[in-house]
């Protein structure tokens, strides 16, 4: 006797649905999904379409246009025009061509520039011993010593840059398959815009300094009855050189060239930190965009493991970058803090002429703006690294897993930021700390330097020294 089995439409539907669900779970590339509990009554469960990327990926990664190497290419070439960052292979399509070698004309150019700055610094030291110490002479000395140290730091960075850029490019290539581009403008365009703004303002500031000094040279030449205004300009602008050696026009041009290279390096330090901070924050921003796109949805454990792995890669990259540039961060904040205090100190002196007043106000404002920009852009790396926390806090109980817990622990406890050789971390709170430090140091400088203030309304004092740095 054969027993007939009758399947009702409902039972066939349930069987088919169960088979479909089990088949999807079996075919999933993530083994952890097999252990997930599936409840058809949960409305926040994401169905098979969740296995595809939630955020549409970017186009195919092209290292010649989409990488940090491509974005930094024109900036590094600009730096090399001023004897900085002597790395080879910058014009190549990707970071694998980058290399550093001592047998390189760029290194020779850098060494010649370093030798020139060193000679000027030695002249400053001799001047300090021969004529005594005051705030103006000390500021000039600090300016050229900073240029020397900057050159050394960027030579060291050039030695490490090929490996760092290649590591960054590999991470960018991997992220392209999962993360979409947030900004409509590419990283290279943003770098060019920021560089153009900073360098243009630096050019205006330096031109105003030269114009102010030349006006003072005209007044001094008339006061002394001299006809060589250019000679008066060079001798008054660089007394640390022309009180030791005799003046000639070609020597004056050489020293002025060294001064231009030093001024560029001083500005380039802040520009470089701004650009690196923008690039790092952009990587975190792409990951955060992917996380915010699944807010309110229940994702499987393998998805959170993948997101946590991406975050961990970015944290590792940030630490590696910080290891290479933390000394540059410390130098930037130290010199900017010093020059802000000195400019505030000089502001207590009477300033003759509208041109000098405009130059002083513009120079001081540009210095404040540059320091603030470095602080905020560098702090944005830390800010972006904290943004996944609200998403992780809002994960529903049905999809909460060990990966979510580990991810949340790392985000809330790991301090991901740029540092000044581990002495301080660059966060938004640092801006207020720097402001308070400036006020404190300024009060000390005013008390100890009150006897050294120079009356700029006196033409004799102006002829003795009208150099800021």
TrEMBL record:
<keyword id="KW-0675">Receptor</keyword>
<keyword id="KW-1133">Transmembrane helix</keyword>
<dbReference type="GO" id="GO:0005886">
    <property type="term" value="C:plasma membrane"/>
</dbReference>
<keyword id="KW-0807">Transducer</keyword>
<dbReference type="GO" id="GO:0007165">
    <property type="term" value="P:signal transduction"/>
</dbReference>
<keyword id="KW-0472">Membrane</keyword>
<feature type="transmembrane region" description="Helical">
    <location>
        <begin position="328"/>
        <end position="346"/>
    </location>
</feature>
<keyword id="KW-1003">Cell membrane</keyword>
<comment type="function">
    <text>Plays a role in the sugar gustatory response.</text>
</comment>
<protein>
    <recommendedName>
        <fullName>Gustatory receptor</fullName>
    </recommendedName>
</protein>
<dbReference type="Pfam" id="PF06151">
    <property type="entry name" value="Trehalose_recp"/>
</dbReference>
<keyword id="KW-0812">Transmembrane</keyword>
<comment type="similarity">
    <text>Belongs to the insect chemoreceptor superfamily. Gustatory receptor (GR) family. Gr5a subfamily.</text>
</comment>
<feature type="transmembrane region" description="Helical">
    <location>
        <begin position="107"/>
        <end position="129"/>
    </location>
</feature>
<dbReference type="InterPro" id="IPR009318">
    <property type="entry name" value="Gustatory_rcpt"/>
</dbReference>
<dbReference type="GO" id="GO:0033041">
    <property type="term" value="F:sweet taste receptor activity"/>
</dbReference>
<feature type="transmembrane region" description="Helical">
    <location>
        <begin position="141"/>
        <end position="166"/>
    </location>
</feature>
<feature type="transmembrane region" description="Helical">
    <location>
        <begin position="358"/>
        <end position="379"/>
    </location>
</feature>
<feature type="transmembrane region" description="Helical">
    <location>
        <begin position="258"/>
        <end position="281"/>
    </location>
</feature>
